[in-house]
Amino acid sequence: MPETLLVVIRSILAFVWLFFLTRFVGRKQVSQLTFTEYVVGITIGSIAAQASTDPQNRFLDGVVGAAIWAAAAVALAYLQQSSNVARKFIEGEPVVLVARGQVQEKGLRQARLSVAELMELLREKEVFDLKQVDWALMETNGEITVLRKPEYEPLTPKTAGVTTPSRPTFPYVVIADGQVLPNSLRAAGKDRAWLEQELLRHGVDDPRQVMLAQVIGDQLYVDLRQDTQQVVQPSSREALGADLEALQADFTSWALETDDPDARRLYEEYARKTAALRKELDALVR
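The structure corresponding to this sequence follows.
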């Protein structure tokens, strides 16, 4: 067999074997890997490369070697999950770089960081003023986490004392690259017939014309494959009816969630008025 053809076959087999090994080991991103996991990944890749391009070595030896390293990585991960002592020994512990607003020189020496490098890492977390930092730690994967002082924390609705309604529903992608996703469609509480009817309302008679379709509540968002194609939007009357129905549902939901009696009565009143308005306009918005 020609040597070039042999390399091609071995490379394809090595790629398939490496694919299954990576699925077996896990799905961590590179930034989430510990140093040990990073070394294991580099070693497995090196073994696979040598097995695919060096005809002098037996391919089976490379397969067995990569499998042993992958099994070792899984065993280490299991050991870390089952024992805190083993986890600390294998991964180490986070290093405190800033404590109560004070830079920790011992922590910088442990992390082998200079003050300039510490400030660079803080700027990556959008912190330019050291006095805003309460705590800063270097995690075992090399990432830095920052806890700001309370007076410098971003304002949120909770800290501002503002009551916000809960999200009414989760958005589901039901068509991606022209392919209908039946599991997402079922999770959204819809069926194929509903989807086809909504697509027709948007002027689409074939799901393969759709780049992306997303269900949010009872509404369908459609983006076609060709940007030059215009999606036919539902009529303004139908949209008005749907908006009024959603508004009534929001008022009802807010009335149930709020603890303020005055706000509850206000939301209930608005819900009744919206329902009455929908009834009056029912013949027009159909």
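The longest helix spans residues 59-82.
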